[in-house]
Amino acid sequence: MTTTLNGTLTKAGSIHKVEGAYLGLPSMNAPGSEAFIGDALSNPGGAAISCGFFELKASEPLVYEYTYDEMKVVVEGEFILTDQATGEVTHAVAKDVLFFPKGTTVKFETLDYALGYYVGHRSFAP
């Protein structure tokens, strides 16, 4: 079974396609933070993998602890990322690829706007 939470799902044989998954993302309801996230596909065919979009607008930072491994590609804008364990900071811009190992806590910030596409090794919606 395939669950789609954002966008419109179509199939061509075993190929899954989701259109518009970055539009109208639900709020993460983090006080002071304009952070939005939505899975495009969650556990397609029973696989322990989910993907979707994460959007952040200039606001208070979002601090997030990863309970699963995730990779993210920056689609638009710039994320300012702080590893909360070390205090180290990196800036990620369009086409940069990020990896967040399970157990990592990250502070996400942007000066203006950022949109990322993520793939997470998980079997639950965020």
Please specify the SSE layout and strand pairing:
Elements: E1 8-12, E2 15-19, E3 35-42, E4 50-57, E5 62-65, E6 70-83, E7 89-93, E8 97-100, E9 105-109, E10 113-120
Antiparallel strand pairs: 1-2, 3-4, 4-10, 5-9, 6-7, 6-8, 6-9, 6-10
Describe the structure.
This protein is an all-beta fold and 126 residues long. The protein has no helices and ten strands. It has strands at 8-12, 15-19, 35-42, 50-57, 62-65, 70-83, 89-93, 97-100, 105-109, 113-120. The strands form two sheets. Strands 3, 4, 5, 6, 7, 8, 9 and 10 form an eight-stranded antiparallel β-sheet that branches. The protein has a two-stranded antiparallel ribbon with strand order 1-2. Strand 3 and strand 4 form a beta hairpin. It is globular, with a radius of gyration of 14 Å.
